[in-house]
UniProtKB/TrEMBL annotation:
This is CENPP protein. It comes from the Eukaryota. GO terms for biological process: CENP-A containing chromatin assembly. It holds the Pfam family CENP-P. Residues 6-33 form a coiled coil. One of its GO terms (cellular component) is nucleus. InterPro entries: CENP-P (IPR027801). The keyword Zinc does not apply.
């Protein structure tokens, strides 16, 4: 057999093995998340889902209503993307711990703000006392391309230390907007 054909088969085998590994990890995550729920909670969710789907099939919402609602949501998303400059490309959430009054979730988020890419990873601890819910961000990790400006790396480091997502998004929005203006200005003079 030709070496190039063998190499192509080996590459395909490696790609399939990697896909199997990723799917196995995803399955384990889903299985782990489902173990945090009691049988009673799972049955309630199933019954609720069945009622929702039966309501849809009985014609409570026609396909044209759903299409109009989808178009409205897309319009709102487009508006908010234009307003803030943020465009999220991926988000994943993994429940690490769940009790009656405490939930710990690990989030991974990536996207762009104007022309600057970013990735976030953090843990969110939600605690419920009576009717009050409080959330605390910990283990914040921010990845950005800061080769252009050392101030960005200083900002990222201080934001990670404080664990303030709100500060990160507000500051990144402003910085990225002005970064885009500077970039366009320099292109104009070239």
């Amino acid at each position: 057999m030709d070496k190039s054909v063998c190499q192509a088969y080996e590459d395909e085998i490696q790609a399939l093995e990697e896909e199997i590994r990723l799917l196995t990890e995803k399955y384990e995550e889903i299985r782990q998340e489902s173990t945090f729920f009691s049988d009673e909670e799972i049955l309630k969710s199933i019954k609720s889902f069945q009622r929702e789907t039966q309501g849809e099939t009985k014609g409570h919402e026609s396909p044209s209503d759903l299409k109009a609602q989808l178009e409205s949501l897309e319009t709102e998303l487009s508006f908010f993307t234009t307003l803030t400059g943020f465009q999220f490309t991926s988000h994943s959430k993994k429940t690490m711990e769940k009790t009656r009054d405490r939930t710990v979730q690990k989030h991974r988020l990536s996207g762009k703000c104007h022309s600057l890419s970013f990735q976030l990873e953090f843990q969110l601890l939600e605690m419920q006392n009576n009717e009050k819910v409080s959330a605390v961000v910990s283990d914040l990790s921010i990845i950005m391309d800061s080769r252009e400006n050392s101030d960005v790396s200083k900002f990222v480091s201080s934001t990670e230390e404080r664990g303030s997502l709100l500060t990160f998004f507000r500051s990144l929005s402003t910085y990225a907007e002005w970064h885009e203006h500077r970039r366009r200005t320099f292109l104009h003079f070239k």
